[in-house]
What does this fold into?
Amino acid sequence: MAFFQNQVLEGHTVKEVTVRSLLHCGNACEEINKCWSFNVQKTGEGSVHCELIDQVTHNCSELTNRFDSDHFTTTKVRKK
It folds into this structure.
């Protein structure tokens, strides 16, 4: 899994969810076949806002700076 601090991948969101933790965000991505990465933003209420993404980040030039959010890629195997 790759991690990009204070950066997000924009324009490829397939679903947005609010969950209790980073782990739950990763689990939400694993449950959706089209999800390959996710942006995470901690809220002031002790929860995490997740943007589930249908793309994989290959380099930092694809990312946008956002000081309050991080981007993670998954290690899922593509299903045919």
Residues 37 and 73 are 4 Å apart (CA to CA). The chain has one domain: 3-73. The chain has a mean pLDDT of 87. The first strand starts at residue 3 and ends at 8.
